Predict the 3D structure of the following.
Amino acid sequence: MIITIDGPSGVGKGTIAKIISEKLNIKYLDSGAMYRALALYADMHNIKENDSDKLKKLLIDIHIQFINEDGIDKVYLNTEDVTDEIRTNEISRLASKFASLEIVRGILREMQKRIVRKKDYVAEGRDMGTYVFPEANYKFYLDADPQIRAERRANQLEKILGIKVNKSKVLEEINERDELDKTRAICPLHPAEDSVIIDTSELSIDNVVNKISDRIIIDG
Ligand code: DC
């Protein structure tokens, strides 16, 4: 079984997808973390989006893994735990840029399909239900007002990084990322035709989880 949850930045997809995966006891794929890890690697090696030779080499060298350590999903970039490092605003911005490149999306799409091949998954991202797993059993698209998403993102960043963040700057970045994600030529963000669209602006996490779980029928 594949359940896809797509939507823009800061809509709560990650939190919701994790809860659904725990509730149904199936695995969780955070595809955004893969774009973030790739952006971090490029940043560390000073590789720019337009340097196609270095980018091709990067795509061969890079190894992204999700490892569960004591119940917590960790993101490994080659041998390094980058779980927290990939959550900065700078990496969010860079990830969005690299995500607009066909060569990057092609490689990550193959990795995502390979990961999901043998087990039941909740796959979360921007193009899970539209381009990566069009055959998914259940598709959801979460949306929310940008102002509310910025607030959620700022709170999340403060919790993870332990620093105060400028909320209007986060809103600016959310709008910028929406624009990049929705208007890119390859696999732009949009709801799949057969997805259930949920506006989470006024909903609690529990409300959203219930709306999703109510639609999923587990065989056996
Ligand atoms: O969901 P996120 O904020 O962690 O995603 C980081 C960036 O990666 C986001 O700007 C868009 C990109 N992304 C994508 O293009 N396709 C996906 N399936 C997931 C993320």
Notes: The longest strand covers residues 64-69. Residues 2-200 form a domain with the Rossmann fold fold (CATH 3.40.50.300). Residues 9, 31-32, 35-36, 92, 95-96, 99, 125-128, 177, 181 surround 2'-deoxycytidine-5'-monophosphate (CB under 6 Å). Strands lie at 2-6, 27-30, 64-69, 72-77, 80-81, 121-125, 138-143, 196-199.
